[in-house]
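Entry type: protein chain
Record version: 2
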Amino acid sequence: MLRVRTQRAQSQLLDTQMMSQLSHVKCNNPVEFLESFTYLRCRIDACGGSEEEILRRIEIARGCMKSLTKNIWRCSITQSVKIRLYNTHVLPVLLYGSEMWDVTVKSGKRLDAFDQWCLLHILQIPFTTHVTNQVVRTRTVQPPVTQTVLLSDAKFKQNMTKKVTKS
């Protein structure tokens, strides 16, 4: 039997049909309906989009990058160590929950632009210097973030398909 804590019940509506079904449920306390909420540190949106979550993850990762500026990115350690630090400390923050993202062209460009900003920051290339994205990718040997997201999404779906067929 399913029991709901009615003192603090919240729900997220996905469509109006669900609202009519929930109106038949008897509850002493009102149920609060949300447009979006955070679950396991990921933003869940009622419309199913990922734009808000991607922007949120970019801002968190930007804070991570800025916190490492003085002690890591501007010190005399080698470029390969800086790239490894970026891959282990910044990218996981950015890509947390990315398996569930619906990456559009617009959000993909935002992710790649942020990644490019990070790499330029690590290489200490000023914005006034005209360096192509391809040159930066060659110097850092880094794939675009959207490529990483699409690969992790494909692996996630493949693993889910294996689990479903085993059941």
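Comment: The longest helix spans residues 145-166.
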